[in-house]
Design goal:
Length: about 950
């Protein structure tokens, strides 16, 4: 039986027992038993549900998107030039009043590049996809009760260069596609029906890497509302320490902000909550929050015998930091922490909690099939579970700050993380990126090492050394508990080089230099920060360079790398090399080395772009997993047309010996060299290929591959069967073709189409680096027996999400996922409108002016500005003022007409559009006014003539909205 995926994936897990012959098949149920099942029993901890009094709301919903740049209008004349230079006056598509009515509406995270076509003229490094520029806009309503709160917006990351405007003022310029932008919007904010405008211009043409980087707001956006006295963004540092006597403490430092008018005395409390939800430590300290400055509270909690965090038992604690002002709880931050010790020994490698742990790591980029870099949180979970299933215990974030949700998953699942900085540059802009990374990530127990660079040309020079010194010092100022490394690939023997400035030296490749370096630097810990770089196409077993195909049998190393087997052997045999980071765990777009067009994604992964395993997955699993017997056979055994021809068969196992049989006939028994693995050349004859693994002469494991017949049916297997109906939860679903005996057909390459109810398809893939099918839509071909569909729930949905798959001539398949009520706090969509905030305001005059009066273009001093609006001082004699503004209404309003909504006019008023009076307010009391706006193309002039009554304040107290008719 050819059980699945070319590597006998089903019914292949066998359990140890102490009895003589212990061959107990695990699985047997339909589905991919390997999907996560290969990890040992994981302890699971309840996650304490804590709710903070501040609000952190998702701002992912309801953005408008325009692909392509929009030029700013050419500014002419004095008045416009002068106004353009002022706060709140951004023009063009950055203006709050801009017409975005024909822009596409979408929710974030979003990567527009993965939606695009493949194009031979584009850069292979970016996966042959056009990047370009784009704009995003969103209106935001803030409740009047938010007045006085500290409000901030956080963009998790935007690829690549970005400018952000809030209410027409630039609030951020960003130069990296990997760091977050944290923007205090409080001073710019408007409340109630005076809406706020958020605009982002993205330029994804600049490249920061040589891999696929996507384009757009591809991580989450958050709106955080906190009290005036509050905990700053990333403002809690909880840093467990163990002293020489083995006693644990938890020093907690909280950074406080205060937007109020005076310094405030507060009390800061920290509670430590154990993995089961019990408070096991608490402390309270007085602190001061100075006005418009930062304060700090420090306290230390004693922690008796905490449960340690490790890769096998990721016990996560929670720190609840609270701020009390005058006895009232005003802010709270929830932070995860874990108790563990880290130590690198120059002779013996890495120790976690004083126990040696060889680092069995993989390098990882951040894109996944179907979704590009806009990876849903639950897909990060899936990707890390796949990596753990391979026996890996560590991930190197190559070569940039990862999504925070990935780090949360690593904390939870028990995966060590090498957190890597992107730009090697100690100048202030870039140092800020590094410092942000450390501040954001330093509470994660999973992070065991910081890396300041990857393969920098200056690594063997004095300049490189001086740069690293400064960057390491910056890291240590923020976190002195973890070592710092840099991934070097040459220059390490130069008289001055960066290995002299780091705690742990990382080697990319260069195994021939391990011994010399260690001999010359016996006190410097050494680790492979990157190795292997061998090529495999999933499901292919014969190299065909003319078709850009490389066999999976680990015989295709790059010229600078090694086969998976050789790379690991070089590291495993040397105790002083702390461990490995295989390039890479999962394939990624771009870098289709050794090929170019039409190959668009990498061949390096131990898994393909969907996370489907290649042979390297099973090889490493056999080499890395020690606690249970493992045996897998490669390749599959469905080779019609190759009858009698030799096929190379490999067993991937942690047994001592393996016996191979074809259709019951013994081929031979081999002793296992765990670095090389047993292999046979077997003339193909259809049927059943079977291997039995032995330890101490006893059979402990078994693997079978069987010849499959032609495909007759489809099968869908979801990664998870219960999803949250929060509009964000997503799950990959595996698509296979089965023969009439229900065996997956590893050679099936056929088109499949999908239909979904109560959810949406957000991406499709099949792991073929040469495939140019769309990753969006509802169709995908199987590639060597497999494809993947990623589904996402609709916000507010419950019930059943159903996916159906069909292919010509095959029995259709369907799968049903249960959708449970979701609980994601999100800011609702705000209907798009034109926000008119940029008014000119005449001086007060005694004689009623003509409504068409306007200031001279070069006179910036007799007329003033009202942006968005403010009441004017009372004049003892009274008089008249004119407000004047020109704007182009949104397309829908231009075509069908609309209305002008004045939130608050104080005093009698007349509203004129293009010189024609359209509404009046005779009442002097503050109040709203609505005026009709007729359908018409082009720019409109609005003038509001207001009467100032003697001794009474008057004026346009709020911004004005132009919107569609009801
Ligand atoms: C390394 C580099 C990686 C990747 C790899 C491919 O030199 O650090 O980013 O390009 O080569 O082999």
């Amino acid at each position: 039986m050819n059980e699945s995926n070319g590597l006998n994936l089903n019914r292949r897990r066998f359990l140890w027992t102490s009895s003589a012959v212990a061959l107990v098949a695990a699985g047997g149920a339909p589905g991919l038993a390997w999907a996560g099942a290969a990890v040992g029993p994981e302890r699971s901890y309840p996650r304490p549900q804590l709710k903070a009094p501040g609000e952190r709301l998702s701002l992912d919903q309801g953005w408008r998107f325009h692909l392509g740049d929009i030029a700013f209008p050419k500014i002419r004349g004095h008045g416009w030039s002068y106004g353009n230079a002022k706060a709140g006056n951004a023009g063009g598509a950055a203006s709050p009043e801009y017409d975005d009515s024909d822009w596409r509406e979408l929710d974030l995270p979003h990567d527009w590049v993965v939606e695009g076509p493949f194009d031979k003229d584009e850069n292979l490094s970016q996966g042959y996809r056009p990047r370009g520029k784009a704009w995003y806009r969103r209106a935001l309503r803030l409740d009047p009760t938010d007045r006085g709160k500290h409000l901030s917006i956080e963009f998790g990351a935007i690829a690549t260069h970005a400018t952000v405007w809030f209410n027409g003022s630039v609030v951020a310029h960003n130069w990296s596609g990997y760091n977050a932008l944290q923007i205090d919007i409080t001073p710019f904010a408007r409340y109630g029906d005076e809406l706020n405008s958020i605009v982002v211009r993205v330029d994804a043409d600049p490249m920061e890497g040589w891999w696929y980087e996507g384009g757009g707001i591809y991580r989450h956006v958050w709106l955080t509302k906190r009290a005036a006295v509050h905990i700053a963004d990333d403002g809690v540092h909880a840093d467990p320490r163990r002293d020489g006597e083995g006693r644990w403490t938890l020093p907690v430092v909280a950074t406080l902000g205060n937007i109020g008018p005076k310094a405030e005395a507060v009390e800061v409390e920290a509670q430590l909550v154990d993995p089961w939800g019990k408070v096991v430590g608490a402390g309270r300290v007085a602190a001061e929050a100075p006005s418009l400055d930062q304060g700090e509270a420090r306290l230390v909690l004693d922690v008796a015998a905490p449960r340690l965090w490790s890769v096998d038992d990721p016990a996560l604690y929670t720190v609840r930091t609270r701020v009390w002002q005058a006895g009232k709880l005003v802010d709270e931050a929830i932070t995860s922490t874990g108790f563990r010790t880290l130590r690198f020994d120059a002779a013996q490698g890495f120790f976690l909690n004083d126990r040696p742990l060889k680092i069995q790591g993989v390098c990882l980029h951040q894109d996944h099939a179907g979704v590009g870099v806009a990876v849903p949180d639950s897909l990060w979970d899936f990707r890390l579970r796949r990596i753990k299933a391979m026996g890996a215990n560590a991930v190197r974030c190559a070569h940039n700050a990862p999504a925070p949700e990935m780090l949360e998953a690593a904390d939870r699942l028990g995966v060590l993380i090498l957190d890597e900085n992107r730009n090697f540059n100690p100048s202030p802009d870039y140092m800020r990126q590094l410092e942000w990374l450390i501040r954001r990530d330093r509470n994660h127990p999973s992070i065991f090492l910081w890396s300041v660079f990857n393969e920098e040309p200056m690594q063997g020079t004095e300049a490189g050394y001086q740069m690293v010194r400064r960057m390491v010092a910056a890291v240590k100022r923020l976190d002195d508990s973890r070592p710092v490394t840099a991934a070097m690939n040459f220059g390490m023997f130069n008289p001055i080089n960066v290995s002299q400035a780091v705690d742990v030296v990382g080697f990319n490749y260069q195994p021939d230099k391990y011994d010399r370096f260690h001999a010359e630097h016996p006190n410097l810990p050494l680790m492979s920060s990157e190795d292997t770089s061998a090529f495999m196409t999933r499901g292919e077993w014969f190299t065909d360079r003319a078709r850009n195909i490389l066999a999976e049998n680990d015989e295709e190393p790059s010229s600078w790398g090694n086969t998976h087997r050789k790379a690991w052997e070089e590291i495993a045999k040397r105790p002083f090399v702390a461990g490995a980071f295989v390039w890479t765990g999962i394939d990624y777009r771009g870098e289709p080395t050794p090929f170019e067009w039409p190959s668009a994604s990498s061949f390096f992964g131990a898994m393909d772009l969907c996370g489907f395993p290649k042979m390297a997955f099973f090889l490493h699993r056999a080499q890395w997993v020690k606690d249970r017997p493992l045996l897998d056979l490669a390749p599959h055994w469905t080779w019609p047309g190759r009858e009698g021809q030799p096929i190379k068969v490999m067993a991937l196992t942690n047994a001592e010996a393996v016996e191979l049989r074809l259709n019951g006939r013994l081929i031979s028994r081999q002793t296992v060299d765990p670095y090389v693995m047993p292999s046979w050349t077997v003339p193909y004859s259809p049927g059943r290929l079977e291997a039995i693994g032995y330890i101490g002469g006893r059979p402990v494991s078994k693997a079978i591959v069987e010849t499959a017949g032609p495909p007759v049916a489809l099968r869908l297997t979801p990664d998870r069967t219960v999803l949250a109906g929060d509009g964000a939860d997503a799950a990959p679903i595996t698509v296979e073709a089965l023969d009439k005996a229900g065996r997956p057909v590893p050679t099936a390459n056929l088109p499949v189409t999908f239909e979904i109810d109560n959810g949406r398809i957000i991406g499709l893939g099949n792991g073929d680096p040469n495939c140019h099918e769309s990753e969006k839509g509802n169709a995908r071909s199987l590639f060597n027996g497999l494809a993947q569909v990623i589904v996402q729930t609709d916000r507010g949905s419950t019930g059943v999400l159903r996916l159906r798959a069909s292919a010509p001539g095959l029995k259709a398949a369907q799968t049903a996922l249960s959708v449970q009520p979701g609980t994601r706090l999100a800011e609702p969509r705000t209907p798009p409108v034109s926000i008119l905030s940029d008014w000119r305001l005449s001086p007060i005059v005694k004689v009623r002016p003509d409504a068409s009066t306007k200031p001279a273009d070069n006179d910036m001093n007799s007329w003033g500005w009202a942006n968005p609006g403010a009441l004017q001082d009372a004049d003892s004699e009274g008089g008249f003022v004119l407000y004047r503004l020109t704007f182009t209404p949104r397309g829908t309003v231009r075509r069908a007409g609309g209305k002008l909504v004045f939130g608050r006019l104080t005093g009698p008023a007349e509203v004129y559009v293009d010189g024609v009076m359209v509404a009046t307010k005779t009442d002097a009391a503050p109040g709203p006014l609505t005026a009709p706006l007729s359908a018409k193309e082009g720019e409109r002039t609005v003038a509001v003539l207001m009467t100032a009554l003697p001794g009474k304040p008057f004026g346009m107290g709020a911004a004005v909205i132009a919107e569609e008719r009801d």
